[in-house]
């Protein structure tokens, strides 16, 4: 996908760009900076931070993260990842798109704790008949060998905006990112959950604009 973005930029004659990534977009922005560093002048991450090559949310990493978060928050956070990998997950969610969307955009911490964070919690009580469901490269760490030797250090100015989302707070993205960043700025505690650009658009856009206006 990073190659697709690079091809689109080349076709449009865009030159160097400023990249903004949120959630899975943060992973894509990370790889664009790793594989095509000359295309990106600045990087901005919203609530979800940079991920170095060779690391991913594989089964082993998810179990480790959930164990650590469990000690702090008293509940796990990636149960829905495991649910997505189950047989029949797509068949269950497809007829219930509005319900699924409402759960994932909820700001109610009880929803996070009780519905989609705990292991198996997301689908409990309304299972569909099982059907074959394809494996995902992320969970099964298929790309680990290809990514291991890729450029991990980010030289461009980089901004991380953190929120009050308990899952992101527990992940401590600033600490994860610092070993790979030459020029990292962190703006902490935006009064929003995971979807900061929707929940606090003025505050979020103001932070982004100030970073854009800065020379370095």
Automatic annotation (TrEMBL):
Coiled coil: none annotated. InterPro entries: AB_hydrolase_1 (IPR000073), AB_hydrolase_fold (IPR029058), AB_hydrolase_sf (IPR050266). SUPFAM superfamilies: alpha/beta-Hydrolases (SSF53474). GO terms for biological process: acylglycerol catabolic process. The keyword Transmembrane helix does not apply. One of its GO terms (cellular component) is membrane. This is Bifunctional epoxide hydrolase. It comes from Lachnellula suecica. The gene is EPHX2_3.
């Amino acid at each position: 996908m990073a190659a697709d973005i690079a091809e689109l930029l080349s076709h449009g004659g865009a030159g160097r760009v400023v990249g903004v990534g949120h959630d899975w977009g943060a992973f894509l922005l990370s790889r664009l900076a790793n594989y095509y560093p000359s295309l990106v002048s600045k990087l901005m991450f919203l609530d979800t931070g940079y991920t170095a090559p060779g690391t991913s949310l594989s089964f082993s990493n998810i179990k480790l993260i959930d164990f650590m978060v469990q000690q702090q928050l008293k509940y796990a956070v990636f149960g829905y990842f495991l649910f997505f990998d189950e047989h029949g997950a797509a068949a269950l969610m497809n007829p219930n798109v509005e319900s699924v969307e409402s759960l994932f955009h909820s700001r109610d911490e009880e929803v996070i704790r009780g519905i989609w964070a705990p292991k198996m919690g997301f689908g409990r009580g309304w299972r569909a008949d099982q059907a074959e469901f394809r494996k995902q490269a992320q969970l099964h760490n298929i790309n680990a060998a290809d990514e291991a030797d890729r450029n991990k250090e980010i030289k461009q100015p980089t901004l991380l905006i953190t929120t009050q989302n308990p899952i992101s707070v527990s992940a401590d993205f600033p600490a994860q990112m610092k070993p790979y960043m030459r020029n990292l700025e962190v703006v902490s505690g935006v009064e929003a959950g995971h979807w900061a650009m929707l929940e606090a658009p003025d505050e979020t856009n103001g932070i982004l604009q100030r970073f854009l206006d800065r020379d370095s």
